[in-house]
Amino acid sequence: QEQLVESGGGLVQTGESLRLSCTLSGLPSSQPAMGWFRQAPGKEREFVAGLSRDGLTARYSDSVKGRFTISRVVAENTMYLQMNSLKSEDTAIYYCAADLRSSWVRVGNAPSDYAYWGQGTQVTVSS
Predict the structure, then answer these.
(1) Residue 51 in contact with residue 101, Cβ under 8 Å?
(2) Digit-coded pLDDT (tens) for 56-76
């Protein structure tokens, strides 16, 4: 059974940092395309960051570019999202996602680009 489990969310103040983790299990490949999305109350789920299957291409939304960094340790089946200089508008539930259908170099930025999802972890940034 495919499973993605996020951790690392919490309550921080503006300007502080958090690192989210996403551990994968049960996927037939250790190198899926991976992404982070977030959803704030009353808003649609939005793309935050993504990493291609070969791990060489990262893509970020304009709202987090320069502050967030996506990375992966294949041997640990774990993906990370380092979030620095957090703002109140970063408050949301953060979801990790994975997919095996894409090419090795593509980074999808739509929820439909990912077949597997975690349960989400809450990030709250207080001002």
Answers:
(1) no
(2) 999 999 999 999 999 999 889
79, 96 Cβ separation under 8 angstroms: yes
Burial of 6 (0-12, 13-18, 19+ CB in 10 A): buried
Closest residue by Cα to residue 66 from 47, 89, 83, 91 = 83
pLDDT digits (tens, 9 = 90+) for 78-113: 999 999 999 999 999 999 999 999 889 999 999 999
Q: Could you please report the per-residue DSSP string of the chain?
A: --EEEEE--EEEETT--EEEEEEEES-S-S--EEEEEEE-TTS--EEEEEE-TTS--EEE-TTTTTTEEEEEEGGGTEEEEEE-S--GGG-EEEEEEEESSS-SS----SGGG-SEE---EEEEEE-
Query: Which residue is it, tokens 């309550």?
Result: 11
Task: Read off the pLDDT band of 46 (50, 70, 90).
Answer: very high
